[in-house]
Every structure is written in structure tokens, then in C-alpha cells.
Specification:
- The structure is a homodimer.
- Chain A is α/β, with parallel strands linked by helices.
- Chain A folds into three domains: about 160 residues, 3-Layer(aba) Sandwich (Rossmann fold); about 160 residues, Dihydrodipicolinate Reductase, domain 2 (2-Layer Sandwich), CATH 3.30.360; about 80 residues, ACT domain (Alpha-Beta Plaits).
- Chain A has 15 helices and 18 strands.
- In chain A, helix 1 crosses helix 12.
- The interface between A and B is large, with 58 and 57 residues.
- Strand 12 of chain A pairs antiparallel with strand 12 of chain B.
Chain lengths: ~425, ~425
């Protein structure tokens, strides 16, 4: 049986993990695949620095084009990251009928359609298990395990950095900035943390999950994105007193034939299973109309978990090659046949947490609740924190389900009140029914 | 493209769910498979009772043999349950080169090897996603998603009935018998509950999971099994005071090249993620050497979750038929190539919870701890509940890690003490390191 040749583009942390798994588990993987997997070539800008894995120096190159042009390479593994020139390299690999495995969520979320089309045209596989939630086999679960389900919702904690920061803020009551700087020192956050803390990375993963679940290529630009920079420790504290935790959630939900896709911090009840997902862990709650509620939990990032997912894709594709199975039913038609209409954010219905900063004098609550009432928003509970007459105090409220557009209008009016001294904090509430 | 014909043996609860999914999601499934799935024939002893799904009465038969002998049937779905005559029917279906999908964990755990051999010989698929944890795609996750991992441990809450009973006992402080009877009235427990409450059903599922994870057919008889009948509400209460929950766990763990396979009630720390798995839900914690800790959570039983898993297997097999892919690499060689040696229970090392019932007089603790010490067991903490001189009181202890064989000997000695008035309760402790 022909050996399967692998070309690895990107010999960084995850790349090193992939090399380690391919070498340490060589016998096991060969047994699973039915033939051996050979690392044919590795491309990286830096091929000088020592890595904690042994590779034949002859297979190292600084030119990824050498992998793409090597006719013996069956599967290209892309771990370069970024969009340019990665996109071009991937497209060319696919055009040259090489199977592709990638962990690049940014690339898939922005240029996925093009890649799926190219893969479909060349009748090759495109594996991307590693692009969402690292070691958790969530793509397989959605695409295969839940194939008989209409997915009603996906609610995920899919960014480890944000979850680490929010968990620390909750446990220690310290500020976002302080924890972020600490996380950066400890290597849990990037030097430029915006992709993570501004919710963009979560949106990339949501784009991929929603596209598979709803078989419709969701445009990244249609996802509502709000990060965690503005989350204040006091709001985490008040949420805690009310029996909630604050988490950055990535949500895709079908409501009345329309799809909501949004990333934002949200309050979830403390007894909700996602509430106890702490630190860098990821978890995704999927509701299927047949399977019911499912949760997938694990390490969403890191060298070996991500490498584990990459190698699972390599094995699946290699099995297809060995057994001369055609590649899986192309993803593209699966993704574009069902049209879902996206729900505008203004029409979202959810519960809200509000913190109004107002001068402590009679009539404040009546004014604020009056404005809310005019916009069809009813209050479920109020906590007025402290009493400091004529000084600013926080008025914390939980509302019943209301419409986002109404809430925005009400907030604009509330913030214009003389007695309101700062911008009202507004956080959405999720998961009250689970 | 040829239609794929399905023969369904067993038109009970789950069978009805399968029929419903195949009909309600017909278009979606046809799209996924690449051709339509047709329910060719349904066999059940009872074809008279009305079901809440519509089927052509002409496809109903009381004779499962008609399905097996029908040359047009591609995939046989076995939802009859039981061992006889189900085993013979399944074997014959496989011999006749029909693909088989089954949810029958008892059959797989007792006669799996024979079935895998028959499937392998006939080069057909054998799908059994529905046999473990209902709607949770755990088989796929282990076999495919974690293919690059050495599995270090599997710890699962895999029996909904037991978890429901233990959850209720924890919440309400009532006895096993009382909750069991209530569960029977409410349909959460069978009239004959022994398969569930004696841990046998959990052992069946563990047998399947461990055989896949460790690629070695684990003999059901080698699994240590202890059910929940003897769990007393007082022990649940003391465990709670100590910061633990009591759960029935199914455990497969590789320790020093040996495999532990055991089902028993155990204390787990209250902040352990499995501790918050309540009611009829199932959850399995899998540790892989690359992917790290993963948890899969969901409905482990019930009509639609189980049907969801059955249909996911039907779809996978149907795709293989459509694309003329040979069946997956046969399971059998995968299962028998790696030999694992099973660890005898006496050599298990774990922490223990003990409740000694003893006359409240000076020297009891010193006697008991003396015996434990002689057997190399050291005490981590003690709670002496109540003080009733010269009357029996419970002495509750947590030990450090000790060896099961030592513990058994120590318990025999302790229970022979004059001052000890009843059999000492001994529960294992799990998950302190997660």
C-alpha cells in the first residue's frame, strides 16, 4: 500500500505538536489508516531554531511553494495562520488536487466559500476540525453525529483567553486591564489581544459552526460582535449577587425561521452548565430537535489539543485515500443549498441586565422605569446599591424579555436624563430556559 | 442513484422515533446521503397497535426473517433488544451482507466479538453509536475525533436511571427504595430495575467504550460491578458535608500499562464537572494524552436522542454505499491487535470514604485507625457524627490513596470488632485530580 505523504506548512507550536503525534503514534496511526503516514516536507520561515522534535533536516524548507509543487505530497497541512499569502497557498494546493487540513479559522471565516469551492472542484477533502475548539471534535459531531437533527441553537464559550479573563475577574474582583496584562505575562493572551478580547476570534468560530449547522454560508459581517473590554468587575459582582455569571458567548439560534448569529458578553444562570466552564476551557451547548441538549467541553486551544484535531483530519483523509473512497460529499452544496435569513439585531428578543448610574434622589426609578415601560420593557427585579443622597449610585435591574431595538431607544433616552451621570451598562441574559 | 432500503426490526419507542426522523427529515437526509432513504420493511411482534407515525401497512410484518431475506434491504436496523433471537437475526443479516445498525448494548457487550467478526468477514458496516449514551456522539468521538490520542481514562455517568435516583436522593434526602418506586411510577425506571440499578447496563456501555478506546475486546466478566442499591441517604449527606457528590461511575483507566475497568458508586468533588450532571443526563469525561480532558454531555436515553444516533449511523453507512466506499476499516482487527492486561481489583489504588457504625466509647477511633494503619491505609479526615455515649454512632472517614486489597482486609477486621455494630460502608473516591 502506498505511503501517504504529508506536507506541513508552518512549523510553530501546533506544527511541532503535529510532528510529535505523527512520530510518537506512528504505529498506531499506520494501523488505523492501513498504511504509514510520512512527513514529506515542512516549510517555515524559520527552519534554524531547534524544536523539541526530531526531523530529517533534508525535509525542511523556507519555501511553502515547494510543498505545493511536490507531486508526491497527498495532504497539505496549513498551520501558517493569517490570510495572505496563506489563502493563495491553500487555493493553489487545492487546485493541484491536494487534500487540505487547516486550523485557520480566520481564513475559513473570511474566505471559506472560495476554499470549499476549490476543494469541491478538485474533488479533494478539506479538513478543519482544528479550526474550532481545538481538541474537541465538534465539527464531526455537528456534521455527522447530529446529521439527523435540525439544530435549534448553538451557544458556545469558544475563546479561552476571554474565558480565562472573565473567570479571573469573577474570582478576584479585579479589572479587565489588570487581568489582561497578567494574562499576557503568563502567555494566556497575545501581545495584541484584540482578536480575542474584541470577540472577533469567537465570531470566526461561530461563522464556521453556524455555516455547518444551518447549511448556509453565514457572512462574517452579518455577525453581531461585542467583546469583553467594557465588562466591569462591578457588573460581574452584581450578576453574581443575582445568581448569574458573565461569559463571552457565541450564539447561533434559529427563531421562527430566522437565524440569530451574535457574539457578546452575557449573563447566564449560575446553575447553567456553561456557567461552571472556567479558565481557558471551551464548551459548546448544542440543541438538536432530536438529540436534545448536548454539551462538548474541553481544551479549545494549545499545542497538543489542536494537533490532536489536525491529526484526526489527516487520518480521515488518509483512510479515504487508502480505500480509494471519493472525498466526503463536497461541503459546498451542503453549505449553500439551504437558505436561512438572518435576523437583524434590533429584532432580537432577550432578557437584559442594566446598570444605570444615577443621582440618588427620589423619582429616579420612576423615571427610568417609565421610559422602559414606554418601550414595552418590563422590569423583573431591581437592586439599588448603597444610599448616598445626591451622589451617583448604581441602580441594577433585570428586565423580562424585550426587543433589542426597543432597548436601544430606551437606553438613549435614559442616558439623556439629567439625573443619569454615566452611560448605562446593558448586558444580555441567556440560558434562562436550559 | 439507487435508493437505499432500510429494514427496521423493532417498532417500539425508539423504532417509532427512527421512522419519524426518516420521514420528517427525508429531504435533508436524502441531500446528505446523495440519494433517498426508503423504509422498506418494519418487523415487530405487535403490528396492530397504532403508532404516532404514518407507515404504509404493507411494509409491516411480524416476521423479522422477512427483512433479513429481502434482497433489496441494504441496511438492517436492530431495535428488538435482548439476546435471543436477536443475536441470531443480526448474525444472519451480516452473513447475508447487510449492513447493521444496532442500539443493543447488552448484545454488543456479550456477543460483540462474534458480530464484529461476521461484519468484517462480509465486509459490511456495523454501526452502534446509539448503544452508548443515546444522542451523544461518543463512539464517533472516540474512534475518529480522538484517533491520534492514547486514551488515559474514561469516567462516565452512563446510566440515566441511576443518576436520576442519586440526584433525587441528594436533593431530597430520601431512601433509594422510595425514590426508585417513584421513578418507576414516573417511567424513569423499569419495572425490573436490576439491569440499571445493579450497574449492569453501565458495565455494558463501559465494555463498548473501553474496547474502542483501548482497541482490545474487554471481557464483560472482567469488569468489576457494584450498583447503587446499598447507597444510603446518610452517606450522600456526609459526602455532601465533606464537599462531595455520590455518582454511579463507569471507569476505564490505564495505569502503568494495566487497564482498570469498573462500575461503582463513587464520591467526586462537588466542583468536579461531572458532579453537576443531574437527573437523567449522561456525561463522559475522556482524557487523551494529546487532546487533554474532554466532556461529552447529553441525553443518554429516550426515544428521539437514541433515534438521532441510529439515523446518524444509517446516514454514514448510506453514504458509503452511495459512494461505493468499502466499509470503514473493519473494527475487528482494530479491536484485537493491542493487548491490554486488566488490573485485578485488589490492586486498585484510590481514596476511600468509610462509615464505621460503632459504640460511642473511648478508644474506638484508635482501634479502627490502628487496623487501617496496619494495612497501610492512612486517614485524611474524620467526622464523628453526634455523641451518644454507649450507643451506636457513625464515624465517617476519608482515607488517602490506598490499595483495595488492603482495604478489604482492614474492613473485615474492623467489622469483627466488638464495638462495631454494623457492616462498615466503603465508597471509593474519584476525580480529586481533575
Amino acid at each position: 500500500m502506498k505511503t501517504i505523504n504529508i506536507g506541513l506548512m508552518g512549523f510553530g507550536t501546533v506544527g511541532t505538536g503535529v510532528v510529535r503525534l505523527l512520530s510518537e503514534h506512528a504505529a498506531l496511526l499506520a494501523h488505523r489508516v492501513g498504511t504509514s503516514l510520512r512527513l514529506r516536507r515542512i516549510a517555515d520561515r524559520d527552519i534554524e531554531s531547534p524544536r523539541p522534535v526530531e526531523v530529517d533536516p533534508k525535509i525542511l524548507t523556507t519555501d511553502p511553494q515547494q510543498i505545493i509543487e511536490d507531486p508526491s505530497v497527498d495532504i497539505v497541512v496549513e498551520l501558517l495562520g493569517g490570510i495572505t499569502p496563506t489563502r493563495e497557498l491553500c487555493l493553489e494546493a487545492l487546485h493541484r488536487r491536494k487534500h487540505l487540513v487547516t486550523a485557520n479559522k480566520a481564513l475559513l471565516a473570511t474566505h471559506g466559500l472560495e476554499l470549499f469551492e476549490a476543494a469541491s472542484k478538485s474533488r479533494v477533502d478539506l479538513g478543519f476540525e482544528a479550526s474550532v475548539c481545538g481538541g474537541i471534535p465538534i465539527i464531526r459531531a455537528l456534521r455527522e453525529g447530529l446529521v439527523a437533527n435540525r439544530i435549534t441553537s448553538i451557544v458556545g464559550i469558544v475563546n479561552g483567553t476571554c474565558n480565562y479573563i472573565l473567570t479571573k475577574m469573577t474570582q478576584e474582583g479585579r479589572s479587565f486591564q489588570e487581568i489582561l496584562q497578567e494574562a499576557q505575562r503568563e502567555g494566556y493572551a497575545e501581545a495584541d489581544p484584540s482578536l480575542d478580547v474584541d470577540g472577533i476570534d469567537s465570531a470566526h468560530k461561530l461563522q464556521i459552526l453556524a455555516s455547518i449547522a444551518y447549511r448556509s454560508y453565514v457572512d462574517l459581517r452579518s455577525i453581531y460582535i461585542e467583546g469583553i473590554r467594557a465588562v466591569d468587575p462591578s457588573d460581574i459582582q452584581y450578576a453574581k449577587e443575582l445568581g448569574y455569571r458573565v461569559k463571552l458567548l457565541a450564539i447561533a439560534k434559529e427563531v421562527g425561521g430566522e437565524l440569530e448569529v451574535r457574539v457578546h458578553p452575557a449573563l447566564i444562570p449560575e446553575d447553567h452548565l456553561l456557567a461552571s466552564v472556567g479558565g481557558v476551557f471551551n464548551a459548546v451547548l448544542i440543541e438538536g430537535n432530536a438529540a436534545g441538549s448536548l454539551i462538548f467541553y474541553g481544551r479549545g486551544a494549545g499545542q497538543m489539543p489542536t494537533a490532536s484535531a489536525v491529526v484526526s483530519d489527516i487520518v480521515e483523509i488518509a483512510q479515504n485515500i487508502v480505500h480509494q473512497r471519493p472525498s466526503r460529499p463536497p461541503h459546498l452544496p451542503e453549505i449553500t443549498t439551504v437558505e436561512v435569513s438572518l435576523k437583524e439585531m434590533d429584532r432580537l428578543r432577550t432578557g437584559y441586565y442594566l446598570r444605570v448610574m444615577a443621582i440618588d434622589k427620589p423619582g429616579v426609578l420612576s423615571k427610568v422605569s417609565g421610559i422602559l415601560g414606554e418601550h414595552h420593557i418590563s422590569i423583573a427585579s431591581v437592586i439599588q446599591k448603597g444610599r448616598r443622597e445626591q451622589r451617583t449610585v448604581p441602580v441594577v435591574m433585570m428586565t423580562h424579555e424585550a426587543q433589542e431595538g426597543d432597548m436601544r431607544k430606551a437606553l438613549a433616552e435614559i442616558d439623556r436624563l439629567d439625573m443619569v451621570t454615566g452611560r448605562t451598562v446593558c448586558l444580555r441574559v441567556e440560558g434562562s430556559h436550559t
